[in-house]
Amino acid sequence: MSNVPNANPAAGGAPDADAFLQFLVNLVNNGSQIESIGVTLQMGGMLVSGSIVSGAEYFDSFAASFTDSLGALDGATRSAVHASLAELGDVFRLPQPADPLPNYIHLADALFFTADGTPIAGQPTLWRGRTSAVDGFILGRLQAETAA
């Protein structure tokens, strides 16, 4: 048995996901006094930078954004769609267990950069990804340089 948290013996002992990153995600998911944590994730040759938010906040924001784009539908239908999407976040409104650690990380105001830090065009957005797909991370967000 390995001393490495989340070690996967089938993969030669390589961790499935960084237990420390999962711990940080769990802190935010549990709705403690930490509402968000700025991070930059290294993922397959690109950087994703934003603020870790709880799954509940992610799904609430996603529901609002998505239903705002459904302007052609009547109000009752938009409300039903909003409620269905927001309900996906209900599991995060309950205390999260220490085990198993979270498999997904949710970011608000996510921006994307090439590996050398060059911004990829786009507006800050909501983002969801697998913790097992993160190669590494740093605390703090990258900011796209603004033209003077």
Can you walk through the features of this model?
With 148 residues, the protein is an alpha+beta fold. It has one domain (16-91, 102-139): SH3 type barrels. The protein has 3 helices and 5 strands; from the N terminus they run H-E-E-H-H-E-E-E. It has helices spanning 19-29, 55-68, 75-87, and strands spanning 37-43, 46-52, 104-114, 125-130, 136-139. It has a 5-stranded antiparallel sheet. A hairpin with a 2-residue loop joins strand 1 and strand 2. The longest helix has 14 residues, at 55-68. The radius of gyration is 17 Å and the shape is globular. The model is unreliable at 1-11 (pLDDT under 50).
Give me some keywords for this one.
single chain, 148 residues, alpha+beta, SH3 type barrels, 5-stranded antiparallel beta sheet, 3 helices, 5 strands, globular
Spatial strand order of the main sheet: 4-3-2-1-5
Order of helices and strands: HEEHHEEE
Counted by DSSP, the helix tally is 3
Distance between the termini: 56 Å
Number of domains: 1
From the spread of the alpha carbons, the general shape counts as: globular
Helix content: 25-40%
Portion in beta strands: 15-25%
CATH topology: SH3 type barrels
